[in-house]
Amino acid sequence: MKLDKIEMEHRVENFIMQCRELRIKVTPQRIAIYKELSSTGEHPSAEIIYKKIKKYYPNISLTTIYRTLETFEKLGIISVANILHDAARYDANLNPHHHLVCVVCKRVEDFYDDSLSNLTIPEESLDNYKVLGYSIQLNGICKECQKKKS
Ligand SMILES: [Zn+2]
Ligand SMILES: [Zn+2]
User: Which ligand is nearest to the CA of 100?
Assistant: First the structure.
């Protein structure tokens, strides 16, 4: 899902407001990290974000990126899509959505489906577990990887 410029600016504005409300400092690095994440639908790992940010903040460390993403996640500004394999993948899309995960190239794509977003939670079988949310993950092979195989 590509975002247009206006939507992007809107997200960044929201982000800055959120930081102020939560009383965390709005630094240029934090804005850059958030921007990088929210401008892509690719659910990048911390390392991928690091490589991109490094181009304009050569002094930033991978640890800073990890810590910042962790802070954002704890505050509910972003979420972590925990995929079956490798590193945590970060997601700035907080609308209810689901994931398609390619088991070959590990690409993560969003998809939307109203019926999947409105499933009835079987509370009786959860023994009073308090459910805060859910997202469905479909594992498969993406179009590109299918092409490569054949
Ligand atoms: Zn693939
Ligand atoms: Zn997502």
Answer: 2
Is 62 found in the same domain as 17? Answer: yes
Tokens of 79: 């979420």
Structural domain boundaries, residue 126? 95-149
The one-letter amino acid at 7: E
Rounded to the nearest angstrom, the distance between the alpha carbon of 20 and the centre of ligand 2 is 25
Is pTM beyond 0.85? Reply is no
Instruction: Note the ligand closest to the C-alpha atom of 92.
Output: 2
Cα(108) to centroid of ligand 2, in Å? 7
What is the domain count for the chain?
A: 2
Strands 108-111, 137-140: parallel, antiparallel or unpaired by DSSP? unpaired
Q: What is the pLDDT of residues 127-143, one digit of tens each?
A: 888 887 888 889 899 99
